[in-house]
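Subject: Predicted fold for Sporulation protein cse60, 59 residues

User T.R. writes:
Posting the sequence so we have a shared reference for the thread.
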Amino acid sequence: MYKVKLFDEEHEKDLERAVNTFLSKLKEGQLIDVKYDVALMESEGEQIYCFSAMVIYRT
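User M.O. replies:
I've generated the structure tokens; pasting them so everyone works from the same file.
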């Protein structure tokens, strides 16, 4: 069976930490792919970043 795990963080280091923690729990051969994206929005003159990742894996 295939599954996905979604991550969404405001800071890239937080995303890195969350994804690495999840990946460390997978067994050899379970990881299929990791998709990464960054979105930027401006609100009241402030830039807001959204760092996200989707991990595709086998169970």
